[in-house]
Structure formats: structure tokens, C-alpha cells
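Thread title: Can someone regenerate the structure for this chain?

I was given the following input by a collaborator and told the matching C-alpha cells would be attached. They weren't. Posting the sequence so someone can regenerate them.
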Amino acid sequence: MAVAASAGGVYGLGVLLGGLGPHLSVPVLLVQHLDPRHRTVIAEVLSRRTPLPVKLAEHGEWALPGTVYVAPPDRHLLVGQDGILSLSTSEPVNFVRPSADLLFESVAGMYGPQAIACVLTGTGRDGATGVDAVKARGGTVIAQDPRSAEFTGMPAAAVGTGAVDFVLPLEEIAAFVRGLVEDKRQ
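Best answer:
Regenerated them for you:
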């Protein structure tokens, strides 16, 4: 599962991760736009809101089920063959690094119809191109209902693509994802 957020995202991510429960059978790859000039404590903050282990992603590590991997500031997070994570300092996409678009495209390529992409609150359009890739490979795309988002730009841009399967209030996304993951496993 890949999740993207920007402005207002720490709260939104906390609600989502807090509702996923302790036994999620897929990895969670997460892009939150952060200021690259400061040391980040987002993994520590989010780990207080979920029973799942939360860590900054490291280049070359396996994406393990039930673990939340956060893109480090100023690094694109990608998943490659066999679920191995990579970090990149390639050019920003839509003026941001990490980019939800690149994460979603890599998740679509690796997991195909098993892929789940979720766009939460944020400004800008990051994620809108990536949701098309997930949908094109048969994956499932979820967007936070822009009416429940602190910042509507990212979820509204995703919805505007026509590739979003489900538009849900923030508080309902985690339970929906749990059910979806179980369905995709069977």
C-alpha cells in the first residue's frame, strides 16, 4: 500500500495508520512532503499513533508486511523487483522530492492489481499522475474526500483524474483498506 500526504498530513496519516490495526499483511510505503533542511521526527511521531512498526525507509531493504516505511526528506522512495526499496535524489517531480507520483508508479509496476494507492490531504497535484498508473495496472485507488481534508489540492487533483475508485472521509479509510487487503489476499 502506498500513501501520500502533504500539508495537514501528519494528522491524517496518524488517523489512517492508527486504524490499520497491528496485523496488516502488506507493507505501507509513505510519502509525506517534509522540509529537507530539518532533521525529521515523523517516524517517531507516527509510531505513537499505530501499533505497526514505523521507520524511515533505507536504500536496499525489503518492504516487509505490517511495516510502515516513510520516505526520508529530500529522497524519492521507490519499490523495485522483489519488494526491495530504493531511495533516489533524482530531480523533483511537481516541485517535490519525495514524489507520490514516482512512488505510486513504482508500486503499480511491482504489485499490479494488488497495488493500493491512497491520497490524503495536501496542496498541489502530487499523486495525480501516479494514481493513473495504479489504475492502469488494475490496482485500487483511494482518495480522502476533499471535503474532509484540511488541504484539498492533492485529493481533489487525484479525484479529478477519474482514476480514483473510492472517495472516503478520512475516518473511514483504514477500515476500508483492511477489508480491501483481506479481499486481495484471497
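The chain has a mean pLDDT of 95.
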